[in-house]
Amino acid sequence: MRAHFIQHVPFEGPAHAAVILKELGMPLSGTRLHAGEALPDPGSVDFLLVMGGPMGVHDGDRHPWLKEEMLFIEKCVGRGATVLGICLGAQLIAHVLGAEVRKNPYREIGWFPVESVPSADSASASRIVLPGRFTAFHWHGDTFDIPRGALHLARSAACENQAFIYDDRVLGLQFHLESTPESVDLLIENARHELDGSAWVQDERELSRRDFFSESNGLMKYIMENLVKGSTVPS
Q: DSSP letter string over 165-194?
């Protein structure tokens, strides 16, 4: 399988997800939209990883490449590729699938608990089974509705819709399991103006704690391994 990532800003790259893809033996290429790089042929991508960024899905006037990117995501989904979106990436996927993306009631920045949402219909259960409760890194102000036909996987106290899966191969995660100490430091350096001290925004000391990375990265590996196992992308 051929993996490809889309990056929106210099300080939000694939981080530990790139390590996992290498361990899975998947060649990884990337498009850095912030640097003006062109997207590849959707037919050349088996596993698409869409990263985060401070912009929103409705900011096409300021970021004209958003329209092209969403069309690219739509084509990848349509041809049966495995697609994983993180933060902004999840919002873009939700938007492509017809769901609304809007401001969340709270800005959520920091290490906060996430809990899984049990499926009400066992027939629709996904092979991605999240732990009942885990701690993840968050940095977002927007949220998505769960797309029609998708399964709601997770919520947090500050944000009801934290994860969804569509067709058992298109996954949106509002939180960051790919984070590393270096990637968190880059976020703090480039977006500390968002640390406004509100209810669900931690300070720099709390953001910089190092005790959750192993758990998060391990869960990221489990998720990516299971997405790859279930891939049926056409050759």
A: EETTTEEEESSBSS--HHHHHHHHHHHGGG
Q: Alpha carbon 130 to chain centroid distance?
A: 15
Q: Tokens 């196992």 — which residue?
A: 229
Query: Range of 110's domain?
Result: 3-229
The count of domains in the chain is: 1
pLDDT digits (tens, 9 = 90+) for 106-162: 999 999 999 999 875 544 568 899 999 999 999 999 999 999 999 999 999 999 999
Residue 234 lies in a domain: no
Q: Quote the CA–CA distance of 96 and 32 in Å, as a whole number.
A: 20
- Return the structure tokens found at 17: 């997800």
Evaluate whether residue 235 is within a structural domain. no
Q: What is the CATH number of the domain that holds 62?
A: 3.40.50.880
pTM attached to this predicted model = 0.95
Q: In what order do the strands lie in the sheet with 3-7?
A: 28-32, 3-7, 47-50, 82-86, 170-173, 163-166, 151-155, 101-116, 133-144
Is 68 inside any structural domain?
yes
Q: How far apart are alpha carbons 120 and 84 in whole angstroms?
A: 23
Does the residue 78 lie in any domain?
yes
Computed over its alpha carbons, how large is the radius of gyration of the chain? 16
